[in-house]
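User: For my dataset I need records formatted as: sequence, then structure tokens, nothing else. Please produce one.
Assistant:
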Amino acid sequence: MKVEISNTERNMKNVFLFSVIAVFSSVYTALGQSYANEATYEIAVLQYRGGGDWYSNPTSLPNLVEFCNSELGMNISPEVPYVEVSSSDLSLYPFVHMTGHGNVVFSTAEAKNIRRYLIAGGFLHISDNYGLDAYVRKEFVKVFPELDWIEIPFNHAVYHQTFDFDSGLPKIHEHDNLPPRGLGLFHNGRLVCFYDTECDLGDGWEDFQVHRDPESVRLAALQMGANLIQFAMGGEVE
């Protein structure tokens, strides 16, 4: 038996159908926006043994992340975890930052873990907070015994990502009143570790109240830090 549907019933069904579509469309859009706003990756601070203050400059990386997200449209998580040298979690972070005033010791296993991380595509930034240099040079012989620290030329891509530093690193803090130096370890032609000494980029990223550096100095430090993260995330090699 054929059942006739009145115009009123048909209109009511259409209204219901359009309402369902509208609801699903709104939910889908909201979910899409939620996923789009989620951070796509994290960066971390390296936690090492030996008694050194690996936890120095607690506001540094959160401020750098905020700068990269707001000024360059990056999508880095505002949460900056600590990761131990020995942890397999190193591989979760494309960029790892190391700082302190000294007293760093790597075991053989820890040195091998950092080496694996860097060879596999990770990037390590070391910022000498004054007193770290002797330990960096000694302990990284365990990581890459076949490599030497190389002064990075000013025309290298790490100095020319979004921000240009034609004269290399900016001078943030005096330390021994020597010129700032950017040193690197290159594995198979790729810069895997950038080491700033007589510069102290990490201090320059801290909250203003910590060191009261001029805003121009803090901005230069943040811009150079942003270059490092961009480079680590696949910036131009040359």
